[in-house]
Amino acid sequence: MNTLEGHMPKLPQFADMIIHEDDNLIVINKPPFLASLDEREGGEASVLRLAKRYHTDAQVCHRLDKDTSGLLLIAKNPETYRLVSIEFERRRVSKTYHAIIGGTHVFEDLLVDLPILNLGNKNVTIDRANGKRAETYFKSLRYFKHYTLVECRPVTGRMHQIRIHLATQHAAIVGDALYRGKPAYLSQIKKRGYTLSKGHEEQPIMRRFALHARELRFALDGQEYHFEAPYPKDFATLLRQLEKFDD
User: Considering 65, 67, 176, 234, which one is annotated as catalytic?
Assistant: First the structure.
């Protein structure tokens, strides 16, 4: 087993995810492998289920993919949920994600404006005739030999928007198999001095796609909010390995 990865990480307690709480709002740094809402098959924990145990009237205001980590807003009452929903609908919530993509890509506030059609069953496609408007800005933050750290600022909020928009630029997110993103292995970037124990299969540095909801800015009732979520362990580990061996 790769020393960088063991079994799937144990989910933290809900209270440990909270980075802000007031009378109306809870803001969490969602860990990866945790669904925002209850999944149809049920059984597994979700942010909504954990939040309701913490606060009975809690409602999740938006969604992140199960594998995506980062900032998620939770309303503590119906009025706050309504107000936050309006801000999202009117596109007045500024959202910033960080992604690690395969290859070296120079994006200087690149706007990808490609309509997305939801096919159902968590599948989407680019469809210029029937898709709904989808816009994302991309800016390269850090270059490595074989990878790039990218800032992603979605204007709209379509399913898989960042993931599929990056794929259209031949810049799929590391580990995003759905959009042909390849996982990153330590043996690929640390070519010298890397050995794997006999009989063990190498595991990728991250066991998910490398996407993190980094920052949120919005206003409610005249009050400005700004939150930033630190990288989770797996994302930070991948960046450290790239800085050390792929710089």
Answer: 65
